[in-house]
Design a protein that fits this description.
mainly alpha, two-stranded antiparallel ribbon, 11 helices, 2 strands, elongated
């Protein structure tokens, strides 16, 4: 990713001030607007790399416990949401998915709204008149089987596996 000859790190570009998901996405859009087409495609490649790191059974199960069920598309949006929190939180949750208890919102729409991150680079490329390039971007949804061991055994097993998440959302409508 290049802007004015300087290489920008993916996580530096992602680092927008805390706020609502919509505010984070708007801030990120503003930062990406100045990138050339190769910078946008580079950003998207790094986004897909982050998605691959997070495409794990244990993380899916943790978000599943938070949401009470998660489709493929919802898990993609949840990974986007985690990525939008920045590298420190992302790495912490990848290391221990039960750390979601410290981050997750009380409103599931916040997770859903983050789904827009997947298409942001493509939208900017299309706005610049490069829709052909936008169609070549890899989808962060289309991967093989998630990594790691699948957490199975129903709700009680999930509560045992992720005690902090279970405690935070005990009695919650989520």
């Amino acid at each position: 990713m290049r802007k004015g000859g300087h290489v920008l790190e993916f996580w530096t570009v992602i680092a927008v001030p805390a706020g609502t998901v919509e505010a984070r996405l708007a801030g990120l859009r503003g930062r990406l607007t100045g990138l050339r087409a190769d910078g946008l495609t580079g950003f998207h490649r790094e986004l897909v790399r982050a998605h691959r790191r997070a495409y794990r059974w244990d993380l899916w199960a943790a978000f599943d416990l938070v949401r009470g069920g998660l489709s493929d598309q919802e898990f993609t949006a949840a990974r986007n949401w985690l990525i939008l929190h920045g590298r420190t939180d992302f790495d912490r949750v990848i290391a221990d998915p039960d750390e979601l208890a410290c981050l997750c919102p009380d409103d599931p729409e916040d997770l859903d709204a983050a789904g827009a991150l997947s298409t942001l680079a493509g939208e900017l490329l299309t706005e610049r008149g490069a829709p052909g390039l936008a169609t070549t971007l890899e989808s962060p949804e289309l991967f093989e089987t998630p990594a790691g061991l699948r957490v199975t055994g129903g709700l009680e097993q999930l509560r045992t596996h992720f005690p902090r998440i279970a405690k935070r959302y005990e009695g919650s409508a989520l």
